[in-house]
Amino acid sequence: MLKKIIDSLIDHPLLTSIFVVDLVILLFHKPPFIFSFLMLGALVAISMYLGQKLALFKN
Fold first, then answer.
1. 38-49 in b/e burial notation, b at 16+ Cβ within 10 A?
2. C-alpha span between 15 and 12 (Å, rounded)
3. 40 near 26, Cβ under 8 Å?
4. Which residues contact 10 (CB under 8 A, 6 or more apart)?
5. Domain ranges of the chain
6. What are phi and psi of 56, to 5 degrees?
7. Cα–Cα distance measured from residue 5 to residue 50, given in angstroms and rounded to the nearest whole number
8. What is the pTM of this model?
9. How far is the C-alpha of 55 from the C-alpha of 46, rounded, in Å?
10. Which of 2, 26, 38, 48 is deepest in the core (most CB within 10 A)?
11. pLDDT of residue 7
12. What pLDDT is recorded for position 53?
């Protein structure tokens, strides 16, 4: 399962880099509220897209 996750992240380098940078900025910095709200929305959207592409628990 871990190999499938890593392979999917390697297949989408732009989304992976945006996801990582967005997560690090939200965790370690205090951006203004509106900007952090937009970044959180982008983080959720990227997570949902990658979750749909992975489909780890697909029967």
1. ebeeebeebeee
2. 6
3. yes
4. 16
5. 30-54
6. -65, -35
7. 9
8. 0.76
9. 14
10. 26
11. 84
12. 80
Q: Is the pLDDT of residue 59 over 70?
A: no
Look at residue 8 in the predicted model and tell me its pLDDT: 81
Token pair 């509220």 is at which residue? 33
DSSP 1-55: -HHHHHHHHHH-HHHHHHHHHHHHHHHH----HHHHHHHHHHHHHHHHHHHHHH-
Rg (CA), the chain: 13
Q: Does residue 56 sit in helix, strand or coil? A: coil
Distance in angstroms (rounded) separating the CA atoms of residues 24 and 18: 10
Tens digit of each residue's pLDDT (9 = 90 or more) over 3-50 = 878 888 888 899 899 999 999 999 998 889 899 999 999 999 998 988
